[in-house]
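Summary of Year 1 activities. Much of the first year was spent building the evaluation harness for sequence design. The harness presents a backbone, in tokenized form, and records the residue chosen at every position. We chose the following record to illustrate the format because it has been used consistently in internal testing since the harness was completed.
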């Protein structure tokens, strides 16, 4: 169980280690300062119907109640330790999982943990203004739930930094509160976390696409031979599921509403659809293309010696590593990657060990394709002849073999000029964004009401009705 009598709720017996407890209690006010500055705008007095973890057991971790977000019980929750757990891949395969950081991997592990930790506050910063244009009280509550849990994920990584990395760890924990999404001088580490999330269509796309990168990266880190990292990530994954649900259902509801309006009015032309105050499917496709491509970059280079080292040294595994049937060492295996040669995209088989980023990206793409197929079903059921598609993996990429190339959504290699000419057929234009934002100029917060551009969800949170007062504004 989690001890909520402590200043920092935890299930790691924090009170036993006074030095660590003091260090974290020192970081806590800095975190609160960051939350007040960069957390959801104007929200500090709202009482929000939030879930809070009460135990790390699979069936009983959530409790729902009204909470003022600055009073949310952020804490440190690790999945229970399995005494028999081993390192399951790489050169240390078969040795007991590490309870302390192996000296030789210290800086590499620290870097991975910092990179993971950096994304969490970044996403809160990216979303901080969205409360003022929410489409309903239900959605407002959901974004706040996502925000407090991203804050908790930051705590999860900061605990590891403080507990296992001494002074360097404490410095990194401070730096995590100092970087800012999109800041020219001190940006967040990874590309997608410096992009703005200016409207709710972008928010749902982000939680569908980018939070799912979170899932896949956390799954890979949950395989780590460094046991505290693994146990931390396992618990984080239970929270991540809700974030992806918010994204997937958010887009489903937007598509549903658009299709309803198209059918009722027998319209297909995007400008006529827009005139009725809903988001045309073409714009949804362009947002999809954008969020998919910037998220694909988050997996790193197709061929990466970093990724090979992480794996060989037992620090970061593959998606569902222990379920895979091979040697878990990858000394002989190959894996296909793609590159542009002579104006064509060609396949190249490389040592699988070096292609682990690409493999994780491919695992991710498979899951994404299933989600997009579920969205398509809504369009098909409405009888509307429109196909949502995933662009080619090389489209609009800034990291890896396709960086600097100009690949169309269908995978043709174009010149820079030809690509530029068609850019806004494929990616949202400033006019698209302006239109989407014009639908979201104020917030809809009367219980049970929803903005015109989105359908209500099928059910409320924690079996509450849709007109439940999910947020009290005080
Ligand atoms: N942007 O060998 P390479 C989440 C850098 S999301 C900028 O290709 P590697 C969440 C790279 O750092 C999950 N830079 O990459 C979601 C390296 O730099 P240095 C976050 C990039 O190391 C929503 C250089 O390029 N977790 O949790 O194999 C809401 C060459 O690197 C990018 C993780 O990412 C980029 N996109 O892999 C809230 C897990 N990509 O060292 C939360 C931890 C690469 O040359 N991170 N670079 O200066 C990792 O495992 C690895 O750092 C990466 C990169 C997979 C990201």
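For this record, the design step produced the sequence shown next.
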């Amino acid at each position: 169980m989690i001890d909520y009598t402590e200043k920092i709720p935890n299930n790691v017996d924090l009170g036993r280690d006074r030095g660590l407890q003091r260090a974290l209690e020192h970081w806590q006010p800095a975190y609160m300062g960051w939350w007040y500055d960069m957390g959801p705008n104007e929200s500090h007095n709202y009482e929000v119907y939030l879930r809070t973890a009460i135990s790390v057991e699979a069936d009983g971790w959530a409790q729902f109640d009204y909470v003022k977000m600055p009073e949310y019980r952020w804490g440190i929750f690790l999945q229970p330790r399995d005494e028999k757990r081993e390192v399951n891949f790489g050169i240390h395969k078969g040795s007991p999982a590490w309870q302390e950081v192996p000296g030789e991997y210290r800086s590499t592990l620290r870097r991975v943990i910092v990179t993971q930790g950096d994304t969490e506050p970044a996403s809160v910063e990216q979303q901080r203004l969205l409360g003022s244009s929410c489409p309903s009280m239900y959605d407002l509550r959901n974004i706040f739930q996502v925000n407090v849990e991203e804050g908790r994920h930051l705590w999860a990584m900061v605990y590891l930094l403080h507990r296992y990395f001494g002074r360097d760890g404490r410095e990194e924990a401070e730096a995590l509160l100092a970087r800012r999404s999109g800041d020219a001088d001190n940006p967040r580490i990874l590309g997608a976390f410096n992009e703005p999330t200016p409207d709710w269509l972008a928010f749902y796309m982000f939680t569908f696409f980018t939070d799912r990168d979170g899932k896949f990266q956390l799954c890979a880190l949950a395989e780590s031979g460094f046991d505290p990292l693994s146990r931390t990530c396992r618990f984080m994954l239970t929270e991540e599921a809700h974030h992806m649900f918010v994204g997937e259902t958010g887009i489903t509801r937007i598509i549903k509403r658009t299709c309803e309006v198209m059918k009722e009015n027998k319209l297909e032309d995007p400008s006529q659809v827009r005139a009725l105050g809903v988001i045309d499917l073409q714009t949804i496709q362009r947002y999809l293309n954008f969020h998919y491509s910037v998220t694909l970059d988050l997996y790193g280079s197709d061929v990466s010696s970093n990724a090979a080292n992480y794996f060989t040294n037992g620090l970061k595994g593959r998606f569902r590593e222990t379920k895979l049937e091979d040697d878990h060492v990858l000394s002989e295996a190959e894996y296909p990657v793609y590159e542009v040669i002579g104006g064509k995209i060609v396949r190249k088989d490389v040592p699988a060990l070096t292609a682990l980023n690409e493999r994780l990206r491919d695992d991710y793409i498979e899951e994404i394709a299933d989600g997009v197929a579920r969205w398509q079903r809504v369009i098909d059921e409405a009888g509307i002849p429109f196909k949502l598609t995933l662009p080619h993996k090389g489209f609009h990429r800034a990291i890896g073999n396709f960086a600097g190339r100009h690949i169309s959504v269908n995978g043709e290699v174009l010149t820079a000029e030809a690509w530029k000419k068609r850019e806004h057929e494929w990616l949202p234009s400033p006019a698209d964004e302006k239109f989407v934002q014009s639908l979201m100029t104020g917030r809809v917060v009367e219980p049970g009401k929803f903005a015109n551009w989105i359908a209500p969800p099928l059910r409320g949170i924690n079996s509450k009705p849709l007109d439940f007062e999910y947020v009290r504004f005080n």
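The pocket of benzoyl coenzyme A is lined by residues 112, 115-116, 119-120, 123, 150, 190-191, 210-211, 213-214, 217, 297-301, 304, 306-307, 316, 357, 399 (CB under 6 Å). Quantitative recovery figures across the full test set are reported in Table 2.
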